[in-house]
Amino acid sequence: MSDVDSSKDAFRKKLLEKQKEAKIVRKIVLTVFIVLIIAFSGIFGGGYLYIKSALEPVDTEDDTPVKVSIPIGSSVSAIASILKENHIVKDDRIFKYYVKFKNESGFQAGEYQLNKTMTFRDIIASLKKGKVSQNAVFQLTLPEGRKLTEIARITSSKTSFSEEEILKKLTDKDFIDSLKKKYPETLTDDIFQENVQYALEGYLYPATYPYYKEEPTLEEIFEPMIKKTNELVQKYYDQIEERDMSVHEFLTMASLIEEEATEKADRDKISSVFYNRINKEMPLQTDPTVLYALGEHKDRVFYKDLEVDSPYNTYKNKGLPPGPIANAGEMSLSAALTPEETDFFYFLATPEGEVIFTKTLDEHNKAKAEHITNQE
């Protein structure tokens, strides 16, 4: 064999080897590609199947009632975790993302009877409507115009807590600070102003509150009352700003109207008297503030009482007192923002519950002489 033939043969062998190597590489690449496709298909397919399964009821055959407790102030994440722990949903993260994707909100605290056959839509509907598992164990009714000390007494009569324990909680700075973090627009730093007697005075909304536990904590008892006040503050917030008032001033004015109003009273007119006096830099001279300063209830305020030395005494101090003197209902809250336009500067509540409005001190004194007797 010539040298030329040997070279050609060697070249052919190298070419065949390279072709063989290339073929092997192509097979490896193809195999790897196929494996990756299968892997990704498995991942995505498995993910899809997992999510699809998580969205379905836990068990379509098991409708055994499960008692689920949703605490006050629970976040969506917390609710999802509770549902997962009670085997009402398969995956708490999927439930949480579903709620956010659907932009659902307004879940209510309480004791619920849920079951494993429920869909996400059923669960959400129950939590939003507040379909609880049982009637309230007890209810607590706060009438309008009640002071913090009276609220402590009412609460004590319905629970195992003493008035002292309740007042200690309602004046506990750590508790109040925890509420401030949850409701910052309502519970502002104004509640800690100098001379404010009780930081939460006037912030516990008068209503009937149901409780679904035999022995709820004081936190669970009082937070719904603050939450309700917060809801109403949000409702009136634009009007509060338009009047250039703080929330604290708004609730303070409403409390004065509440305490002066009788069942037959026109709260908008009472409100107008207070605003007219403030605009003229006249003291408000409202008896309920004197009684608050005295710390006692009286059917009648005597002239000697008007001398009490207190920043709450609106006979001695101009403008609003340091803070609310009682809780106010919505009629008084509304009146605090919508006073009637009048030129009245005085009003007098008669023993019959009528309220007489007058423009001058002479007219006021005549009305007093006619309707109020035995004054000291």
UniProtKB/TrEMBL annotation:
It is a single-pass membrane protein. Its EC number is 4.2.2.29. The gene is mltG. Its main location: membrane. It comes from the Bacteria. It comes from Metabacillus herbersteinensis. It catalyses: a peptidoglycan chain = a peptidoglycan chain with N-acetyl-1,6-anhydromuramyl-[peptide] at the reducing end + a peptidoglycan chain with N-acetylglucosamine at the non-reducing end. The chain crosses the membrane at residues 28-51. This is Endolytic murein transglycosylase.
